[in-house]
């Protein structure tokens, strides 16, 4: 009987029985396996047995098995939607696993890291680690994990809309699982294929594959996994405009994910339910569940869900006539989207695929060349044995020729690589310049475009409400003026960056002083912004400079909105060869260990990471908040 066709509880019972006969390493590995089996039916039990296994590994001072159990902790955290925590466990285990000779363990770790990176939206890292995993599994000739890597790569390429590549990997995985007799994994792939057909809007085929998947999971006893089939059935019925059936499937899937405490998926499902209510015209129901889901996404720090829910809530509020709220969510969506630009990651993912395939071809060519040389030497050696002492000279000549030829090939390869590296460096320089221009163009499109879209909505609203009287019209005109001023400010900032290949620190200080003047005017001089210090005579490229100013701008705006401080200081210094900029307020502060960091902090951190800027934020209740930025130039 195939492994996953057995009932999971029976497998767990068999493993528990075997514990009585096992000692040392075998017992620890059995405890790990029990924990991993339990995650399909009961997460509390999964944690319990995994912790026992880890404790015994520590007691026995077995560093390698402790690392394996640490990976299991990461798998459980990722299953609960805590991908950042999962990555901490994986990175803790990484040095020990890498230094081992266990190709399977390396591949498994890389696979789990790939899964976690996918959940936090870093698809380039996700594909990179999955390709590393595939290489390890190919070395160990582990068919089931090779199939698993195909499946995961299918998911990654699906995420960047490379559907043909994705479907090809899924089918390779399904065929290999079918040959091995793994019913559970065949069900998993059928569900993934259902997802591909959903994206292609072929809802009939999507239902067929989702139904097959559901049947496979049920027969395998994998209760939690049935949720994935249920929400694919929900999407298919939603696409077919069978909204009541869609809601029924979504709610069944949501119940399972809440039992599992996988908040990442549960929050996305609530968004899908809200969208279905919108399609039915039940806007108040849609708003209630979307508001609830958005609060949960903020609390859990799930950025991709925040982005989707901002768009959903903007649409709902716009349809309800709550234009202020609609605009607020639209702006928040733009900010989050700015930190999650996927086109650059998508290019990197495709480059990784090409690099991997090229390496595979080069390795195969080298292997064949070596086999050919070995074969030639073997033949000549056999013939020369018959020729006596004269054959020894011939062998030496052949070996010398082979060594000479290898050295000549190496010299040519080195020369070719040197030329190639120079050409690549020049190409990278050109590409970096193009990307800087593209980023600024996106900034113009996203920020200015969203402002103008909202101004259009305000104009339409004013037209529809022209009979509501002077007060209503004055309110709309005031809003138009405010957003026009913001649009002009955004446009000036973008043009300022777009007209420069480089931005000096003096430029940034000057823009900060203009920001200070704007704050004084907007708050009727209730809040003062002091710009202090003399920046070093240094220049940054346009991308770094623009992002540095945006972080300063966001920090000042946050202080104005939330701190209650009458004074905000922006201080420019140079310390140990690095430029340091501090944004300091003396207001109410907040408890960083309890309060949600929200989207603003996430976006500032994301900007800083992309631009190579060190970012730190400190805050104390009643004493204020300090943001420190450092950049080496």
Q: N- to C-terminal separation?
A: 64 Å
Q: What is the general shape?
A: globular
- The overall average pLDDT, rounded, is 78
Number of discrete helical segments = 23
SS strand fraction: 5-15%
Structural class: alpha+beta
Largest sheet: 5 strands, mixed
Helix fraction, binned, reads: over 70%
Low-confidence stretches: 1-6, 342-350, 361-370, 379-399
Order the strands across the largest sheet as they lie in space.
2-4-5-7-6
Number of strands: 7
H-E string:
HHHHHHHHHHHHHHHHHHHHEHEEHEEHEE
Query: Rg, please?
Result: 30 Å
Verbal overview:
Mean pLDDT is 78; it is low at 1-6, 342-350, 361-370 and 379-399. The chain has helices spanning 8-19, 24-38, 43-59, 63-79, 83-98, 103-119, 123-140, 143-159, 163-180, 183-199, 203-220, 226-239, 243-260, 263-280, 283-300, 303-320, 323-339, 342-386, 389-464, 470-498, 505-522, 542-563, 598-611, and strands at residues 502-504, 528-532, 539-541, 567-575, 578-585, 614-620, 624-632. With 633 residues, the protein is an alpha+beta fold. Residues 349-383 form a coiled coil. Residues 547-632 form the Histidine kinase/HSP90-like ATPase domain.
Strand-helix topology:
Layout: H1 8-19, H2 24-38, H3 43-59, H4 63-79, H5 83-98, H6 103-119, H7 123-140, H8 143-159, H9 163-180, H10 183-199, H11 203-220, H12 226-239, H13 243-260, H14 263-280, H15 283-300, H16 303-320, H17 323-339, H18 342-386, H19 389-464, H20 470-498, E1 502-504, H21 505-522, E2 528-532, E3 539-541, H22 542-563, E4 567-575, E5 578-585, H23 598-611, E6 614-620, E7 624-632
Parallel strand pairs: 2-4
Antiparallel strand pairs: 1-3, 4-5, 5-7, 6-7
Helix pairs in contact: 1-2, 2-3, 2-4, 3-4, 4-5, 4-6, 5-6, 6-7, 6-8, 7-8, 7-18, 8-9, 8-10, 9-10, 10-11, 10-12, 11-12, 12-13, 13-14, 14-15, 14-16, 15-16, 16-17, 17-19, 17-23, 18-19, 19-20, 20-22, 21-22, 22-23
């Amino acid at each position: 009987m195939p492994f996953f066709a057995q009932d999971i509880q029976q497998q767990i019972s068999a493993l528990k029985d075997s514990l009585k006969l096992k000692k040392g390493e075998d017992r620890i590995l059995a405890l790990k396996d029990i924990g991993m089996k339990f995650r399909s039916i009961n997460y509390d039990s999964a944690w319990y047995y995994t912790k026992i296994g880890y404790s015994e590994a520590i007691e026995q001072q077995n560093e390698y098995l402790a690392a394996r159990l640490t990976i299991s902790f990461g798998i459980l955290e990722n299953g609960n939607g805590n991908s950042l925590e999962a990555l901490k466990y994986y990175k803790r285990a990484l040095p020990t696993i890498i230094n081992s000779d266990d190709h399977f363990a390396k591949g498994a770790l890389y696979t789990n890291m790939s899964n976690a990176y996918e959940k936090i939206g870093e698809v380039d890292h996700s594909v990179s680690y999955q390709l590393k995993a595939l290489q390890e599994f190919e070395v160990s000739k582990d068919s089931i994990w090779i199939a698993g890597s195909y499946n995961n790569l299918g998911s990654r390429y699906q995420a960047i809309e490379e559907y043909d590549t994705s479907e090809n990997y899924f089918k390779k995985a399904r065929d290999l699982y079918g040959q091995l007799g793994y019913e559970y994994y065949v069900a998993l792939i059928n569900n993934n294929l259902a997802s591909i057909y959903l994206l292609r809007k072929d809802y009939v085929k999507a239902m067929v594959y989702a139904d097959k998947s559901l049947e496979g999971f049920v027969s395998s006893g994998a209760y939690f996994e049935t949720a994935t089939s249920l929400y694919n059935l929900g999407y298919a019925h939603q696409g077919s405009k069978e909204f009541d059936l869609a809601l029924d499937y979504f709610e069944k899937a949501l119940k399972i994910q809440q039992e599992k405490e996988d908040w990442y998926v549960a929050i996305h499902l609530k968004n899908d339910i809200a969208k279905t209510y919108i399609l039915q015209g039940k806007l108040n129901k849609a708003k209630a569940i979307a508001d609830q889901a958005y609060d949960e996404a903020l609390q859990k720090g799930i950025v991709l869900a925040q982005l989707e829910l901002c768009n959903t809530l903007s649409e709902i509020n716009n349809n309800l006539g709550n234009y202020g709220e609609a605009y607020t969510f639209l702006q928040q969506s733009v900010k989050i989207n700015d930190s999650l630009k996927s086109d650059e990651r998508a290019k990197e993912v495709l480059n990784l695929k090409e690099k991997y395939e090229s390496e595979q071809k080069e390795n195969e060519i080298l292997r064949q060349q070596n086999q050919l040389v070995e074969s030639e030497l073997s033949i000549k050696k056999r013939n020369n044995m018959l020729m006596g002492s004269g054959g020894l000279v011939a062998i030496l000549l052949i070996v010398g020729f082979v060594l000479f030829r290898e050295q000549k090939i190496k010299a040519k390869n080195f020369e070719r690589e040197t030329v190639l590296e120079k050409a690549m460096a020049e190409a990278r320089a050109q590409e970096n310049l193009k990307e800087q221009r593209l980023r600024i163009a996106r900034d113009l499109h996203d920020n200015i475009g969203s402002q103008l879209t909202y101004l259009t909505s305000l104009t339409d609203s004013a037209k529809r409400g022209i009979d509501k009287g002077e007060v209503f019209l004055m309110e709309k005109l005031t809003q138009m003026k405010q957003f026009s001023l913001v649009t002009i400010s955004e446009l000036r900032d973008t043009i300022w960056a777009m007209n420069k290949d480089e931005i000096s620190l003096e430029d940034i200080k000057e823009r900060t002083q203009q920001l200070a003047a704007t704050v004084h005017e907007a708050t009727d001089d209730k809040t003062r912004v002091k710009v202090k210090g003399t920046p070093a005579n240094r220049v940054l490229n346009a991308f770094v400079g623009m992002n540095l100013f945006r972080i300063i701008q966001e920090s000042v705006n946050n202080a104005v909105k939330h701190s209650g401080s009458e004074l905000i200081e922006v201080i420019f210094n140079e310390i140990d060869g690095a430029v340091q900029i501090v944004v300091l307020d003396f207001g109410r502060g907040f408890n960083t260990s309890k309060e949600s960091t929200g989207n603003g902090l996430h976006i500032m951190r994301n900007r800083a990471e992309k631009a190579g800027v060190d970012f730190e934020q400190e805050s104390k209740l009643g004493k204020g908040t300090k943001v420190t930025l450092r950049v080496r130039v």
